[in-house]
Amino acid sequence: MTATIVKFTDLLIGRYRNARQAMSNPSRWPQIDLRISMLSERQIEAKSWYKYKGEDDPYNIIRYDLEEMDENIIFSKTYNLLTDRESCPFIWAWSDGWWRGDLDGECIQGSTKIRSRIKFNGTEYRVQDVGHDVKTGRQVYGKDPTEGEFLFTRLDK
Q: Which 3 state secondary structure label does DSSP give 71?
């Protein structure tokens, strides 16, 4: 494993929850758990579930295949393990103490256009993830970006 991927995974691997955010406004923010695990030297898995449903009923499981581009950039192909199909790739860049991930280009899955941004620093994990119907533009999942990010805190370490 390269030093860049070690730095990336050391700050990412773990279990997270947005408890503080969810408790501050339960009608607006569902409580979500996230577990990010190493599958192999260059593969990680991110599993998300609503706390009330439990880990055995996740709403998302994504595998990331990591490839170092340089000492501050990682490219990752993604695969949705629940739908059993490829998803949109990410570019991760290290800057100011955070790894920041953005979709690598336009992302359309079936009839949904996806916008997703992730950043993490070893303690916090923040995400904006929203999908819109390609034809109608109607939001079909996620939070409107104007409402802010999901704010997760690492539970272990």
A: coil
